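Protocol step 4 of 6: structure prediction from sequence.
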Amino acid sequence: MEISIKEQILEMVDEEYQKFSSALIPNINNVVGVRLPELRKLAKTIAKGDWRTYLEQAESEYFEEVMLHGMVMGYIKADIKEILPYVATFVPKIDNWSVCDSFCTGLKFTKMNRQQVWDFLQPFLSSDREYELRFGVVMLLDFYIEEEYITRVLECLDNVKHEGYYVKMAVAWALSSCYVKLPEPTLIYLESNSLDDFTFNKALQKITESFRIDQETKKMIRSMKRK
């Protein structure tokens, strides 16, 4: 008898890792404790088989099941038009930063389909749900911080208005990456924006924490902090 995906996940449980992982994601309580490299191996295996049936029937009782579901979409070989509807169905299941950020990192097909994915992301970037918004912002961070898109990225980040902590932190993180990669347009934006004080100051803090920024620039950035 074929072993189920759930059973395979439970066979990989590491109790010590469960404690560590649960502490990193305080807003959920369904972590069983499977290391990400183990989940990635399983995701690659699923992606080589009947992944369509898997994606349509994937369970979400455990954190690891949701993580696996997201990972599989990063490994499947199919046309972008077929993949994006699966992505759209998955995003509302995201309920923590860890699944969100790992999922985004895996969607490498974005690099070859930037405009199509950009258009796909727009509804998420105007969502009122915390993790749908974070998904949109982290996708910008991972795939769109480059000269061709920087003006549009900064505009999108400025338009994000949400009180969720994980949205604000994602915007701050994205802005710090914008500054590190493209300082001139990002500095102009930072000098005139509609960010709330918390997000703005967090963005400045993250910029000053970068090893790629010199001390003189860090001093200038710190001087912009809102009181």
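Step 5 (inspection) to follow. The two ends are 64 Å apart (CA to CA).
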